[in-house]
Amino acid sequence: MRVALVCPYDVSRPGGVQGQVLGLARALGVLGHDSxxxxxxxxxxxxxxxxxxxxxxxxxxPVPANGSVAPVAxxxxxxxxxxxxxxxxxxxxxxxxxPLAPVAGYGCxxxxxxxxxxxxxxxxxGVGYRLLGALARPVARRLAVRCAVSPEAxxxxxxxxxxxYEVVGNGVDVDRFATSSPWPAEGPTxxxxxxxxxxxGLGVLLEAFGRLDPTRATLWVVGRGPETEALRxxxxxxxxxxxxGQVDDDELASRLAGxxxxxxxxLGGESFGMVLVExxxxxxxxxxxxxxxxxxVAGEHxxxxxxxxxxxxxxxxxxVLTDAEHAVGVASPAALDRARAxxxxxxxxxxxxxxxxxxxxxxxxxxxx
Length: 369
Hints:
15 strands; Rossmann fold; alpha/beta
């Protein structure tokens, strides 16, 4: 098959949806399918695989969305370019990711003739999202299949765009995380990965970490964001916090393998929790907020605590660090093996297979099929 993967977010910048789209294009190529990724792009993006190409649709601008900032294109010409590119590529199926986000997918929604499926990634609907959903309802019937990355994402989408949704999950390159060499650690180590903004809960983690024995653990902080400088003042300069900034994919995998625990203290707005799966694939115990997106993806393979509760988070981290020291509880070899097996369910290869089945179902709805 030949598939158009339409992403509303700047694909030249790191991001959850962008990573899913590029990873899916690569995995589809392994299965023998061709794809063209259509998305805003502020810089050239190399093809993610030998059977995939990337077509930039125009520049993106940062727009506040769901407690974060989304790099989307607002120029209506971007929607027209996407529609023209789909037509010229002669694809069998159009796969719209986050179709309500402006504006790349709207040319296909409004004027597309090819079979279409959509994947909804978002958790939590704001006023703007509800408005876009109301505007899209008349054309949403053109979607042959509606997918969501989690029950939370399906609930968010169905609240603004009623209909039936299939939960398919997200995909992770589990083999890369499972085989990465551990990054050398100075001792017991906690790892945080994420954008430094309120909803990611790094401030709560810093408060919790400050309650731990300062001689006992080191905190690796990966990422940056609008709150980085303010957060760096929360603990003394001599504290055991290592501010690493952005790291490349290889270092991230190595840090995950080298840490004793991955902490994901988000306050909400998370539909899936990719880093939890990556940590489980790397054989690293997980402490995370008990929010629907994280509970769905981690199941019984993570220690979940109430979001925003620094005391509970500190207690959970202390307990898991002790488990890791003695290889018991959630850090026992058997528990980590079960977590790795659970992570394998979310492999990108399996996700691509799930989508191919849905592409075939969508293509079967085309006239004359």
